[in-house]
From TrEMBL:
UniProt GO molecular function: hydrolase activity
Domain of life: Bacteria
SUPFAM superfamilies in UniProt: alpha/beta-Hydrolases (SSF53474)
Source organism: Mycolicibacterium iranicum
The name this protein goes by in its record: AB hydrolase-1 domain-containing protein
Keywords: Hydrolase
InterPro entries: AB_hydrolase_1 (IPR000073), AB_hydrolase_fold (IPR029058), AB_hydrolase_sf (IPR050266)
PANTHER family membership: AB HYDROLASE SUPERFAMILY PROTEIN YCLE, MONOACYLGLYCEROL LIPASE
Length: 270
């Protein structure tokens, strides 16, 4: 799959792939990338988003496969950063192609750990096809996103214009139906899962479960931050990413979660 990719930074720098969240495309990483000047940043538009809109329908596995193709084509391996939907794609990549990933920072991704994952996926798809649901989501996200994308309004509107009822359904179903992928427990990648302290308990629990699933997983919490903190606080997020990828001290605002660094006894090793 031939994804559209933005590339910036020195060609000799450490390769870094940044995976965007839902409703957005790669341009949204701009304020973060500006603060990571030493990295060779590769920023794809995931399938069905932005300039990769024609590569749909979206699916977590197909998106991860496309990112793997990107890394293989442009670098032997790369660091991976993912936010929200992009974090889910990153988790899938860690499970299926760990040899391509050096270190990873994944924020705000969820997994469906319930026995009713498939019915929940179907129900979410039906809701996403309903006009009232799309209007409600659009109004809510427009209020949430307005302060973030004041400088990128044209790109933001372009992303929204590419959406359709079927398109939204594919994305929502893929995200809601995403479960912990087989093989994640054998992935040796040093991966940090960061949740905002003000995010829902579901997101924080998912981060803990994912970190505990991996031999070198770590769960940290961003103090006083909500779900959108990587985009609302690009300076802190960039410092966090650089700290983890460089294996140096993290910012004071990024603290180990109380559930520990993901090394507790009895973890699953799927």
């Amino acid at each position: 799959m031939d994804l559209f990719v933005r590339e910036c930074g020195p060609s000799s720098g450490p390769p870094l792939v940044l995976l965007h969240g839902g409703r957005l495309s790669g341009w949204s990483w701009g304020p973060v990338v500006e603060r990571l000047p030493r990295y060779r940043c590769l920023i794809p538009d995931l399938p069905q988003f932005g300039k990769s809109a024609g590569q749909g329908p979206f699916g977590i596995v197909t998106a991860a496969d496309a990112v793997a193709e990107l890394i293989s084509a442009r670098a032997d391996s790369a660091h991976v950063v993912g936010y929200s939907l992009g974090a889910q794609v990153g988790v899938q990549l860690l499970a299926t192609r760990p040899g391509l990933v050096n270190r990873a920072v994944l924020c705000g991704g969820i997994i469906n750990a319930g026995v009713a994952a498939r019915p929940a996926k179907v129900l979410a798809g039906r809701c996403a096809r309903a006009a009232w649901f799309r209007r409600m989501i659009s109004r809510r996200l427009a209020r949430r996103d307005a302060p973030i994308f004041a400088s990128g309004a044209d790109d933001y509107r372009a992303d929204l214009a590419l959406g359709s009822d079927a398109g939204l359904a594919h994305i929502v179903m893929a995200s809601v139906g995403f479960t912990r992928p087989v093989g994640l427990g054998r992935s040796p990648v040093h991966a940090m899962f960061v949740s905002g302290a003000k995010e829902t308990s579901v997101v924080r629990r998912c981060a803990a479960v994912l970190a505990e699933s991996m031999p070198n997983g770590r769960h940290c919490v961003a103090t006083n931050m909500g779900h959108g903190w990587p985009l609302r606080n690009p300076a802190l997020f960039a410092e966090t990413v650089d700290g983890w990828l460089s294996d140096v001290a993290l910012p004071v605002a990024i603290r180990p979660a109380r559930d520990g660094p993901g090394r507790r006894r009895g973890r699953s090793r799927r």
